[in-house]
Amino acid sequence: MEEKVSAHESVKEMYQRVHEEGLTNVVDRFEAQQPTRCPFCSRGLSCQLCSNGPCRITNLADRGVCGIDANGMAMRFMLLRNVLGASTYTYHAIEVAKTLKATALGKTPFEIKDKEKLLELAELLGVDTSGSIEEVAVSVADFITGEINLDSDEPSKMVEIFAPEPRKRLWKKLGIFPGGPLHEVKDATSSCLTNVDGDYKSLAAKALRLSLACNYGSLIPLEIGQDILFGIPKPHESEVDLGVLDKDYVNIVVNGHEPFVGAALIKAARTEKVQRMAKEAGAKGLRIIGSIETGQELQQRFPKDEVFAGLTGNWLSIEFALATGAIDLFAMDMNCSLPALAIYSDKYGATLVSVSKLVRIPGVDKHLDYKPEKVEKQAFKLIEMAVGNFKHRKKKEFARVPDRKQKVVVGFSTEAILDALGGSLDPLLEAIKNGDIKGVVALVSCTTLRDGGQDVNTIAVAKELIKRNILVISAGCGNGAVQVGGLTTLDAIELAGGSLKKICKKLNIPPVLSFGTCTDVGRISMLVTAVANALSVDTSDLPVAVTAPEYMEQKATIDAVFAVAFGLYTHVSPVLPITGAQDLVKLLTEDVENLTGGKLILEADPLKAVEGIEEHIIKKRKALGLSS
User: Fold this and answer.
1) Which residue pairs, CB below 8 angstroms and at least 24 apart, start in 583-586?
2) In 485-545, where does DSSP find H-type helix?
3) Which of 248, 286, 238, 247 is nearest to 266 (CA)?
4) Is the bond leading into 362 cis (omega within 30 degrees of zero)?
C-alpha cells in the first residue's frame, strides 16, 4: 500500500496516523472508489447533461438520445471542463485587478512595490503614464478589467500585445483569435448545452480559442499584477515539507491559489504587537506557512524568516498537514480545499476559515471572505482566532510533526533568469545551440493518485528529463512535488546529465527551476515567446515541450489546450477521458499538429513519456540545424 500513498516520507508517516485512527483520507477514499469506476466515463462515452440521460455510447447505441456521437460527447465534456478552469483563473485575475485598484486608492495594507514594472505594463497597454503612480495603477487595473470583459467579437488587445507575431497570424487564419475571457467562457458554456454544438471539430476549436483568452486575458495580467503589488520573484532559499510546522508556535496556514490574505497576514505577523500576543498565549511566536499554490505565490516573493516559515506541500498533503495537530488556523481561499476537512478540524484541533466567497466546506461556519478594503482587519481577526486556538491546542499536547524539511531554491521568473544570465538570453541560447542544454520542458502539473502515489510520476519524469540534459521549469502542484522531492536545490545538480550539470554549476542554479504556480503558465509563455523572438522562429520550432505528469483538474486541461494552441508538444497523464472517441483522439494527438504545430501526448508511463519528449526535442533541434 505504501507505494500508493506518496513519494514523500512525511506524508507516508501522517497517512499511517490517520489510517490507524480510522479517519477518512484522500488515499483510502481513492482506493474505495476503484472497484466502482465507470469504464464509459473514463473513456468519455457518457453524458448526463439532459433528462433523457444518462447516455452511454456502446456497440448497441452509437449515439446519445439527442443524436450526439462519441466524438462530440467526449469533446463537449472536455470543453466544459476547460470552462471551469478558465472561469477560476479569470476570477483570480479580477481579484488582482480589484486589489491593484484598491491599493492605488490607499484602501489596502499593500503597496505598489514594483513601480517600474507598472510603468512598463502601462506603456505596453497604451495607458497614459503622465499622472501619479497611483493614477497609472488605477488606469492599468481598469484596462485589465475591461479586457477581461471584452466581447468575444472584439479581438483581444492583450493577445495583440503579448503573443508572438507568427502565432497571431496563425490564430487569425484558424478563426481562434479570441476576445475577452469572460465572454469566451460564456460562448463556450453556451456551446455545451444539449443540442447546440455537437460537432467535435467545432468544439475543439472553441477550446483552443478559450485557452488563448484565458492565458492572455487572465493569466498574464494576473501574474504581472501580483508582481507589481508584491515584487518580481527573485531566487532565494526557503524550506518545504511538513516539518516546517513547529508545534511550539501559533501556526497559520494559508491554502488555495491567491496570495492576498497570506500577504496581509505576513505583514501583520511581523509587528511586535502580534508576536507579543502569541508569546503571552504561551507560544514562541506566530508564523505564517503556505500550502499549495497560495504557498507557492508567497514563497516566490517572501523570504523565509521568523514569520514566514515556508511551504507544507501540494493539495494531496492538506489532510496530512492538518493531522499533525500543529496547525491553529487554516485559511482557505479559492481552489483546492477538500470537502472533508471539518473532520480533521474536529479531530486535530485546527480552526478552519474560508477567506473566499467561492469556498464553503461542510461543517465550517467561519467565513471572512476576502475584500481588498477589509483585508487588514481580516488578517488581524484571523490572528486573534489562531492565538485563541493555540491556547486550546496547547492543553491537548498531541501534536506530531514529521521531522522532515527540505531546503529549496525558489523565486525564478523571466526577469530572474535574465539576471542569472547576465541580463541577456544569449548564454541560454548558446547553451541550447551547442547542446549543453538539449531542450527545455515546462513541468506544469497537479498531483493525483490515479496512476501511483502522490508525486511519484512527477518526480520520475523530472529526474529522467534532467538526466538527459533537459532543463525543467516547474509550476503548480507539480512544483511542490519536485520541491519536496529535492530537485529544486543546488544539490540536485549532481542528478543532471553531464552538460546540464556544467551549465547549472556555472550559473549556480538547480536543474529544475521553481517558477511558482499553475497561474505562471502565462509567465512561462512569455519566456518561451522571448526565446522564440530572439531566435527569429515560431514557438512551434523550438526544442521545447510541456509535461503534466499528474494532471488532476480543470485548470490543467485549459493549460494543456493552450500549450497545443501555442505550438508545443504537450504530454498529459493520466490519460484523458476521450479514448472512446477515436476521431477526437486522432484530432488532438495527430491532426492538430498540422494546424497549430502542437499536439497532445497521452502516456501514463513516465519513462515512455520522457522518451517521446526527448525524441521531439531532437527532431526540433535537427530542423533548426542544431546538433542532436
Assistant:
1) 583/71, 583/200, 584/44, 584/70, 584/71, 584/74, 584/75, 584/200, 584/204
2) 498-507, 521-535
3) 286
4) no
C-alpha cell, 63: 449515439
Contacts of 78 (CB under 8 A, 6+ apart): 44, 203, 207, 557, 576, 577, 578
Question: Helix or strand or coil: residue 571?
Answer: strand
Distance (Å, rounded) from C-alpha 393 to C-alpha 246?
A: 13
- Give the list of residues 6+ apart from residue 64 with CB closer than 8 angstroms, or none: 47, 52, 53, 55, 57, 73
Backbone φ, ψ for residue 367 (5° rounding): -135, 125
Q: Residue 555 belongs to what H/E stretch?
A: helix 554-565
pTM of this prediction?
Answer: 0.97
Give the DSSP per-residue string, 311-356. E--SGGGHHHHHTTS--SEEEE-SS---TTHHHHHHHH-PEEEE-S
The residue whose grid cell reads 492565538 is 387
Identify which of 288, 307, 380, 301 has the alpha carbon closest to the alpha carbon of residue 113.
Answer: 301
Q: Which residue has the cell 464509459?
A: 40
Which amino acid appears at position 582 of this protein?
A: Q
Report d(CA 299, CA 73) in Å as an integer.
Answer: 41
pLDDT in tens, 370-415: 999 999 999 999 999 999 999 998 877 789 999 999 999 999 999 9
In eight-state DSSP terms, residue 576 is: P
**Would you say the C-alpha torsion 149, 152, 157, 163 has a positive or negative sign?**
positive
pLDDT digits (tens, 9 = 90+) for 77-119: 999 999 999 999 999 999 999 999 999 999 999 999 999 999 9
Q: For residue 417, what pLDDT is reported?
A: 87
User: Which residue, 474, 576, 461, is CA-closest to 517?
Assistant: 474
- Residue 512: strand pairing partners: 472
Calpha distance 383→283 (Å, rounded): 13
Least Cα distance to 588 among 173, 164, 74 occurs for 74
Computed on alpha carbons and rounded to an integer, the radius of gyration of the chain in Å comes to 24
Which among 165, 185, 184, 192 has a CA at the least distance from the CA of 84?
185
Pairing of strands 55-56, 46-47: antiparallel
State which H helix or E strand residue 197 sits in: none
CA distance 596 to 120: 30
> The cell 481588498 sits on which residue?
372
Which residue type is seen at 67?
A: G
- C-alpha angle 147-101-161 in degrees, rounded to nearest 5: 30
Place of cell 510533526: 401
Each residue of 324-376: pLDDT tens digit? 999 999 999 998 999 999 999 999 999 999 999 999 999 999 999 999 999 99
> Which cell numbers in the block locate residue 139?
488606469
> Which grid coordinates are listed for 126?
497604451
| Cis before 54 (ω within 30) | yes
Are 173 and 209 within 8 A, CB to CB?
no
Confirm if 624 and 537 have CB atoms less than 8 A apart.
yes
Distance between first and last Cα of the chain: 42
Q: Which amino acid is at 87?
A: S
- Domains of the chain and any CATH numbers: 2-56 (no CATH), 70-230 (1.20.1270.30), 236-396 (3.40.50.2030), 411-623 (3.40.50.2030)
